[in-house]
Amino acid sequence: MILTTLTIWFNLKVVSYHINPIWFFVLMLPTALSMSAVPFTTANPAITRLIKQMSNPIVQRAYLIARLPSVWFMRARIERLSPKEAVVRLPFSWRSQNPFRSTYFGAQAAAAELSTGILVALLIQGQGKISMLVTHMEADFHKKATHTLRFTCDEADAIIQAIQQAQKTGEGQTLTLHSKGIQTLPDGTQEVASTFSFEWSIKVKS
How does pLDDT run across 73-128, given as a tens digit for each residue? Predict the structure, then answer.
């Protein structure tokens, strides 16, 4: 009789824990905290840190020399970086020109790829271990590039969506990012010299 009474009491307590909102909150709090989204803005300390690093000429130069020496040699620089866009400046010089006295297509491709890649690298900061890799590229050349070029990628929303989908499914995601190379002529007018499309693959690493 006593054993039966204790068993009924124990079962009732277990049931009460499951239906008690306070206990439910206490039990689910750690899970909720672990699932809280890391922002894709400057409210994310990791994003702010990378922006500050790339805004420092000495740090950026060291980064390019170590990771992208050919880009550094051509004097390409990350001119502007934010959670919304990335702008890479490629000066017209002997370091980046072809035999026809215009900017070599390979130099343009490198600067354009950097504008997309640095934006992806920025937005994966603080999101866990995520790998990124270019799997395809297309380009169109509209004008002869004989002046400084600025390549801009402003498709942050597409990157964020791909990251979130990769985190949700655990599967690799592909997305296509575009970069437009604009040169400023001596009279101040601007014209599109080239446009690039890069297919990026991103995957959450276990």
Answer: 999 999 999 999 999 999 999 999 999 999 999 999 999 999 999 999 999 999 99
Distance CA 190, CA 148 (A): 11
Question: What's the pTM?
Answer: 0.81
38-204 CATH choice from 3.90.850.10, 3.40.50.1980, 3.10.129.10, 2.160.10.10: 3.10.129.10
CA atoms within 13 A on the CB side of 21: 0
Q: Which residues contact 179 (CB under 8 A, 6 or more apart)?
A: 112, 113, 115, 116, 151, 152, 153, 195, 196, 198
Assess contact for 149 and 193: CB atoms under 8 A: yes
Question: Is residue 139 within 8 Å of 176, Cβ to Cβ?
Answer: no
